[in-house]
Amino acid sequence: MNIPVVTIDGPSGAGKGTVARNIAFELDFHLLDSGAIYRILGLAAMEQGIAFDDIDGLVALANSLELSFPYDQEHTAIILDGVPLGQKLRNQTVADAASQVAINPSVRKALMDLQRCQARAPGLVGDGRDLGTIVFPDADLKIFLNASVEVRAERRYLELNESGQIVERSVILRDLEIRDIRDRTREVAPLVPADGAHVIDSSEKTVAEVVTEVRELCEAKCLT
Ligand code: C5P
After folding, report:
1. Gap from CA of 102 to ligand 1 centroid (Å)
2. 86 to each of 32, 62, 76, 89, 90, how far by Cα in Å?
């Protein structure tokens, strides 16, 4: 059976997660937050004292993850082994750990099945870095959502502030620049628009405007 898949890739802070959740909600599709998978692996490695260059340790950890992403229009929950993780994944330390474990090809391979098996009827909307290029190369609709690094840093600042985390704007900007370079230049699955992806720059757009644009692309593909 052919399961329809929509992929939304792009750099951190471009608004992928919010747009993906809204589109999944409108289509009544499942949702995959692939960044959360890398964040969980980074966090679990730190908690269990597994070094980021201990490939066997990371792969064993990756193979043991049992995840799901129930959501409503406002929030995405991340359930690991039946337990909701809450805000534990949303901080700079975990984001940095995620992008370090994500460099390794064996780790990425180990996480591939976990991502692919989220494609269940009636369909899937996923966001990440390589969903359109590597994980779901045959996706029905591929979006590459971008925004200037300054706009992304401001959004991340407001988001962290809202959740009570006080981090200076300059620190967030520097962190995003470091992660962008790491994500864009790594050898395996670098962050690039997939062939045939629709590139949308959200710097000057509201979430609602981007959602409308993506919805129209879904309609054009008869996914609604
Ligand atoms: O999207 P998010 O900021 O939660 O992702 C955290 C990190 O996980 C990214 O900086 C990236 O290094 C990694 N990642 C990845 N491939 C994905 C999703 C996330 O390498 N599909």
Report:
1. 7
2. 16, 20, 9, 7, 9
Which pLDDT tens digit goes with each residue over 155-214?
999 988 988 888 999 999 999 999 899 999 999 999 999 999 999 999 999 999 999 999
- Does 195 fall in a domain? yes
Between the CA of 35 and the centroid of ligand 1 the distance, in Å, is 4
Residue nearest to ligand 1 atom 11, measured at CA: 99
pTM: 0.94
Closest CA to 35 of 57, 59, 8, 55: 8
The count of domains in the chain is 1
Q: Per-residue pLDDT tens for 29-75? A: 999 999 999 999 999 999 999 999 999 999 999 999 989 999 998 99
Among 43, 52, 69, 99, which residue has the most ligand 1 atoms within 8 Å of its CB, making it the best to mutate?
99
Cα 129 to ligand 1 centre (Å): 6
Which domain range does residue 133 map to? 5-214
